[in-house]
Hints:
Low-confidence stretches: none
Strand content: 15-25%
CATH superfamily of the largest domain: Histidine kinase-like ATPase, C-terminal domain
Bound molecules: adenosine-5'-diphosphate
Radius of gyration: 38 Å
Number of strands: 12
Structural class: alpha+beta
Oligomer: single chain
Helix content: 40-55%
Number of domains: 3
Amino acid sequence: xxxxxxxxxxxxxxxxxxxxxxxxxxxxxxxxxxxxxxxxxxxxxxxxxxxxxxxxxxxxxxxxxxxxxxxxxxxxxxxxxxxxxxxxxxxxxxxxxxxxxxxxxxxxxxxxxxxxxxxxxxxxxxxxxxxxxxxxxxxxxxxxxxxxxxxxxxxxxxxxxxxxxxxxxxxxxxxxxxxxxxxxxxxxxxxxxxxxxxxxxxxxxxxxxxxxxxxxxxxxxxxxxxxxxxxxxxxxxxxxxxxxxxxxxxxxxxxxxxxxxxxxxxxxxxxxxxxxxxxxxxxxxxxxxxxxxxxxxxxxxxxxxxxxxxxxxxxxxxxxxxxxxxxxxxxxxxxxxxxxxxxxxxxxxxxxxxxxxxxxxxxxxxxxxxxxxxxxxxxxxxxxxxxxxxxxxxxxxxxx
Length: 400
Ligand code: ADP
């Protein structure tokens, strides 16, 4: 009996030990499975996060994720490019962005988490304006809160709208300047017309003739402004190929403008020296004529009372690059004005007497646009009274 009881106990013990080992193995298996699943989840999470990062990096705009404490938790490639080597992750957005307006907008949204879209103007000192040198940059800020409580995050997308704002500004300035330029001759003409149409306005024939003469000169000026504005707007049109490219002999173009200015040249007793070899250039002959005409006419126009010498020199190198120089020995352009002469409506006023009708101030901006349309560059140097030179360089172009 005792033996039987002992055997039963031993059997039970063996069974117990076996069951415990099995349970142990099962628990181990379970832990292993759990760890595997956690690792898989972690891998999936990382994979997902990487996919999101790839998508964000492909965005053309800087993107930042900011948590409820104001720390930057994620950013994309365009954002990193702005800050270059500077570490911005897990840093307070206030310390990173530094601009007062930008920070106040973020603080506002952090305090009341609502989606918001706003335009901001950032000064040249801001890291976001680095690309624009001394100019402000303009951004459209798109802020969207996600999650709640501890999971609260803000997604910030910053769209750079600077080029659009700048070109709107240029257009607005152009319209304002053009209106101003047209208003002056128009008001002179309407004033004279009023005088002439008054009773007895035509009695003093000499005075009337003088008024008519002035009116004709101002109408000519209005015409010139309108024509110049049309040329500029054609050169600036969105049309990808505003140029009519064709090969032509450069010397013919030079000859053409000299013939057109023949009367003025003779009247001023100016000497025009041409040093242009016989080569062909591919370009838009209409605009090349305009370029040369404006440069030579300027030299003549600015120096009416002196023995003027104008020189037109052109050359073409073996690669087809063309260099054109138009120089004169006239009164020249003061150094302080030189950086601005290609701007629309800019004039060195001192050159004009009170009785003279002013130029349009558009001549050199047309020259610049036309040279740029030929993928070239233009520079001006001047030693007043000695030598003023405009140098144009254009690469070879092909007829499309
Ligand atoms: P404008 O119609 O007044 O000639 P431009 O744009 O052609 O306008 O020229 C801008 C200014 O540059 C002129 O007002 C003039 O003062 C100056 N300028 C241009 N070319 C010359 C030159 N060859 N000599 C002296 N001044 C010049």
